[in-house]
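STRUCTURE:
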């Protein structure tokens, strides 16, 4: 899954609470966009956007998900 690979390969210094928030936001975004194929390139774009917003201090999964979707101009 894109989100786990990106989180493993990054040196974000996030704690378990933040990581869980990012994963929840990722799952919400995929569900909202009806993305079922985890090999779809869109999954990596979503994961990257969510991590980017989490780094700015946003830690609400719903907000992270919405920001990522809006940034991608999808929906």
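SEQUENCE:
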């Amino acid at each position: 899954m894109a989100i786990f690979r990106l989180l493993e390969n990054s040196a974000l210094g996030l704690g378990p609470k933040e990581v869980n928030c990012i994963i929840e936001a990722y799952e919400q975004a995929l569900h909202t966009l009806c993305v079922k194929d985890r090999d779809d390139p869109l999954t990596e774009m979503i994961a990257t956007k969510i991590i980017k917003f989490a780094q700015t201090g946003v830690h609400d999964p719903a907000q992270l998900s919405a920001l990522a979707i809006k940034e991608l101009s999808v929906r």
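REMARK: The longest helix spans residues 16-32.
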